[in-house]
Design goal:
single chain; about 210 residues; alpha+beta; two-stranded antiparallel ribbon; 9 helices; 7 strands; about 15% strand; flat
Length: about 210
């Protein structure tokens, strides 16, 4: 939902284009698209509900090319950049989509998500980024070689185990905290892992962002 009001703090127009350019909005749209599919995503500019434009996801999927408040303020209020904060959730998203396509039984929404990633992979998961401060800029690591390590994990038909249960969040945390090539994960065959039984989820409506 993105009518065209005036933004209170920066005093700039807020619209579909400005929402499309925001880092956290892009994260939300990409996450929904990869889990639920683009066909159930809609846009409301203030007049009527419309199908998501065809060019929306190909641009929105490149999260790290979006604007963020912390970067515009050159990290004066907080040293941590939002780009660093979204690495773990996007890495988990990649793990999920990659695992589904590796099974070769993916639905149409999974094929769309995988094709989207394949077309924009380097822009969606950059190895480094430019960190800006008042004194200048520096190149800092972002995904580095994490995607290759996730792919190897899936190809070897192994998963992360935490107290005898599969735990993607723990896997992503360990992946980010350990130097490349020095992982201390516990690898076990998938068949030996006790899976959590998740309750059946209720059907959700269209994605709405404000």
């Amino acid at each position: 939902i993105c009518p065209a009001p005036q933004h209170v703090l920066p005093g700039e127009p807020a619209s579909a284009d400005s929402m499309r350019d925001r880092l956290w909005c892009r994260v939300e749209h990409l996450s929904y698209c990869c889990s639920r599919g683009r066909q159930s995503m809609y846009l409301h500019r203030g007049d009527a509900l419309e199908a998501l434009p065809e060019d929306w996801m190909p641009s929105v999927c490149c999260v790290f090319e979006a604007s963020s408040t912390c970067c515009s303020k050159r990290h004066f209020l907080s040293a941590r950049c939002d780009r660093e904060s979204v690495v773990m959730p996007l890495l988990a998203l990649y793990y999920d989509v990659y695992t589904r396509q590796a099974k070769e039984r993916e639905a149409e929404k999974d094929r769309y998500a995988w094709d989207l990633i394949m077309q924009h992979k380097d822009r969606m998961f950059p190895r480094t980024f430019i960190y800006c401060i008042n004194d200048g800029e520096e190149v800092k690591p972002l995904f580095d070689d994490m995607l290759e390590r996730v792919e190897a994990l899936v190809r070897e038909n192994k998963i992360i185990v935490n107290n005898g249960r599969s735990d993607t969040a723990t896997a992503m945390g360990q992946l980010m905290s350990e130097p490349s090539g020095e992982t201390s994960w516990t690898y076990v065959p998938k068949a030996n892992v006790e899976r959590r039984e998740e309750p059946e989820k209720a059907t959700r409506g269209p994605s709405i962002s404000i």
